Structure formats: C-alpha cells, structure tokens
From TrEMBL:
<comment type="similarity">
    <text>Belongs to the 14-3-3 family.</text>
</comment>
<protein>
    <submittedName>
        <fullName>14-3-3 protein</fullName>
    </submittedName>
</protein>
<feature type="domain" description="14-3-3">
    <location>
        <begin position="1"/>
        <end position="224"/>
    </location>
</feature>
<dbReference type="InterPro" id="IPR000308">
    <property type="entry name" value="14-3-3"/>
</dbReference>
<feature type="site" description="Interaction with phosphoserine on interacting protein">
    <location>
        <position position="54"/>
    </location>
</feature>
<dbReference type="InterPro" id="IPR036815">
    <property type="entry name" value="14-3-3_dom_sf"/>
</dbReference>
<feature type="site" description="Interaction with phosphoserine on interacting protein">
    <location>
        <position position="127"/>
    </location>
</feature>
<dbReference type="Pfam" id="PF00244">
    <property type="entry name" value="14-3-3"/>
</dbReference>
<dbReference type="InterPro" id="IPR023410">
    <property type="entry name" value="14-3-3_domain"/>
</dbReference>
Length: 224
C-alpha cells in the first residue's frame, strides 16, 4: 500500500476527513500504479469528505429556509454566508478530485471494474458540482454516458456498480435536468434487468445486488 494511501486510511478512521482527502490528492500527484487496496481507499475517503460537506450544506439550507419564513433577516444573511463558504470548499474539493481521476487514477486502473468505478466517481462529482451551479449539465451528461456505457458493456445487469451508475444517472435526469421520462426509462431498465439477473446470483452476491435494486425500485415508486 502506498504511504499516502495508508495515511489517508488512518486519518479517515480517526475521523480526520480533511487530512485524509489531502493524502488522496498527494497520492494522485505520485502517479504511481495503485493496488486494489489503494483504489478502495481513494473511493471511501473521497466519498466520506464530499458527503460530509454536502450534508452540511443541506442542513444549512433547511435552517436558512426556516429562518427566512420567520423573517429573521440577520440569521438568513449569516447562514447564506456560511453556505457560500461550504459551497466554495465543496467546489474546490470536487474539482480537485475530478482532476485526480482524469490525470492519475484513470490512467492505470488495476481492472476494468476499477476503471468503471472511477468513471462513476467522476460522474457523481460532476453532478454534485451541477447541484451548486458550478458545472454545465452537458458536462455531467457526458461523464454519466461514459460510465453508463462502460458498465453496460463490461458488467452484468445485477452488478452493484452497474446498477449504482444507473441509479445515479436517473437521479441526475430527475433532479438536475428535470427530465422525468428519461429518469424513469433508465431506472426501469436497470430495475428489470437487474432483478432478473439477481435471481441466479449466489447468496453472498445477491444481497449487495438487491440493495441497489431496491433503491431504484423506491425511486420508481416515487416518480410514477
């Protein structure tokens, strides 16, 4: 395991998500060939830090709306300033991670599933930038198409990575693009293909597959 990967995992375990993310960025700079363990660390650490900032932003948005409804102008101004700082940090982090994926991690993945995982991460991070108006929809679409087509070509219909990409791609269409029909079409295809394929999977693989398939099913129920 690379030293930066090792430190990233230690910092992550200790709850030091910012320092863990910094080590991932340093790992990208080395341009070394990663081990599967390194790749797993990159995925876990970056997701953890990004999720932390997105969760903080969502909480601030909820409180901001509540205080605005109460007419608490000073509180709203303060909250908007804090939200802006969170968005700046999130945008910088996402842009840095996307650059690391493009310029380092995608250049020599250990396997085709690993390459597809990095494509998925890139697409998801592009979507998060679009959520805060820092990336054009067309760029996000291109990233998801690359991940979606690679997954459909190389992975089975019930593979959690393939269904996970379909899940997030459909969410992109529903929430960002506002294209409900496209979202339902992608989700429905993934659900039907994944459900049928999952029936023949070994027990130890079926649970992971069905977890994502059930999330897709829930979205379909909410959207139709």
């Amino acid at each position: 395991m690379n030293l930066h990967s090792f430190l990233a995992r230690v910092y992550h375990t200790a709850g030091l998500t910012t320092k863990a993310a910094d080590e991932v960025s340093k790992l990208a700079v080395t341009r070394e060939t990663l081990t599967p363990e390194d790749e797993a660390t990159v995925s876990v650490v970056t997701k953890s830090r990004v999720d932390q900032l997105r969760r903080a932003r969502r909480i601030i948005c909820v409180v901001e709306e509540r205080e605005e409804n109460k007419g608490k102008v000073n509180r709203v101004i303060a909250l908007r300033g804090f939200k802006s700082k969170i968005e700046e940090e999130l945008a910088g982090l996402l842009t840095q991670f996307i650059s690391s994926i493009d310029n380092a991690f995608l250049s020599h993945p250990t396997s085709e599933p690993s390459r597809i995982l990095f494509l998925k991460m890139k697409a998801d991070y592009c979507r998060y930038l679009a959520e805060i108006q820092r990336m054009q929809v067309q760029q996000v679409q291109a990233a998801y198409v690359a991940a979606y087509e690679a997954a459909r070509t190389s992975l089975g219909p019930a593979h959690p990575l393939r269904t996970g990409i379909a899940l997030n791609y459909s969410v992109f269409h529903y929430e960002i693009v506002g294209n409900k029909d496209a979202a339902i079409q992608i989700a429905k295809m993934a659900y039907e293909e994944g459900s049928n394929a999952a029936k023949s999977l070994p027990i130890d693989e079926k649970d992971d597959a069905l977890e994502v398939i059930h999330l897709i099913q829930t979205n379909l129920k909410n959207w139709t």
